[in-house]
Amino acid sequence: MRVVIITGLSGAGKSQAVKYMEDFGYYCIDNLPPVLIPKFMELCHQTHGKIEKVALVIDIRGGLFFDDLYEGLDNLEELGYQYEILFLDASDDILVKRFKETRRSHPMSVDGSIGEGISKEREKLKKFKKMASHIIDTTKLIPAQLKEELKNIYLEGKESSNLMISIVSFGFKHGIPLDADLVFDVRFLPNPYYIDELRDYTGNDESVRDYVMNSPVSVAFGEKLLDLISFLIPQYIKEGKNQLVIAIGCTGGRHRSVTISHLLFNQLKENDNRVILNHRDAFLIKERKKE
């Protein structure tokens, strides 16, 4: 029987995750007191194989009961059940934003301070994050991307690291992304802006990508960039990094940066990396309607 313990930060997407796990055929229970884990597994065993996949959401909403999680996991091992821990995380500013949007108080906030509640929760969950089989940072994920991540791990059984790579195209005139780990300036590449028939399009259009990549410099840069990122990825994984943001910028963030971001995204995806793509500034100016 496959047993997945879902935990992590409040607001990081555990409720959404358990819905997707249910879609994947898992028998799911949200907010189960840890002391009841052995009893629940006994009930599953009595179904004689009818329940083969289980996902249990256990987090600090359980209050004092949450402190029994270690004991509950030990009991699982004593009963001969192997389990995995899925830990959902997100940046503090995104968690604060999500709580404000839903107008809910943080379960560990005594005086109403969301930030203080998040800080206390991080400290309480620190050990469980280290124990996690899989860590998903939902900071930049939309629901469909979270579902795809879970599908790859728990439905298709793909091997993956805990490093989520986010590629962001941007325009320097609009500012560098504040959360970028690596920033690459591609303003030296051929610029479609100066070609009348290409100016109103973006790097999402094949004609623009062909123009940018029809240059030995662009091809050589793409190869060297992939080589560098491929070298860095295992180093970051070894370090324990969970989120890597690669920002690629040109002047306006519509042509060259989008083209190179697509190129890097496709190459990393082919190598089975966990990667998402975001064009921050590509559509600040409405594209010309195509004939």
Automatic annotation (TrEMBL):
ATP binds at residues 8-15. Residues 164-281 form the RapZ C-terminal domain. The keyword 4Fe-4S does not apply. GO terms for molecular function: ATP binding; GTP binding. Keywords: ATP-binding, GTP-binding, Nucleotide-binding. Pfam families: PapZ_C, RapZ-like_N. It comes from the Bacteria. Residues 1-154 form the RapZ-like N-terminal domain. This is UPF0042 nucleotide-binding protein. It comes from Alkaliphilus peptidifermentans DSM 18978. Gene3D superfamilies: P-loop containing nucleotide triphosphate hydrolases. GTP binds at residues 59-62. The keyword Amino-acid biosynthesis does not apply.
